[in-house]
Amino acid sequence: MVALQAPTNAMLAKGMGSPVNAALVSFAVGTVSLLLVAALLGVRPSPSVLRSLPWYAWTGGLYGATFVALTAFAAPRLGVTFFLTVAIAGQLCLALLVDRFGAFGLDRVEFSPLRLVGVLMVLGGVVLVRK
Prior knowledge:
By secondary structure, the chain is mostly helical. The protein folds into 2 domains: 73 residues; 53 residues. Helices cover 79% and strands 0% of the residues. It has 6 helices and no strands. α2 crosses α4 and α4 runs antiparallel to α5. The radius of gyration is 18 Å and the shape is flat. It starts with a helix and ends with a helix.
């Protein structure tokens, strides 16, 4: 659904005059949706668990908001395909580092030649999509 998120957020940004407003509306709709799903499933976070999390556990929403605002801004200028190809390539490059160092409490996964070739192929795809 990420491929649909970029053009719908771009449409929101155009209509609302700002990618930030588009991200705000997108997250408001997402929040309401998640509140309904949580209510239907009967799940809610434990206050003690919330207090025990490290500060950086709370930054996921910031990353998401930045991505949504960027899609609203960049997709109409770059095209959805090129924007998403660049986004995926960037995600994979950072994922290699996250895996390598076991960041955020994840298990470490070493670089391998095949993993590196796979990411390089995606980077090559960025060039091909742009041409």
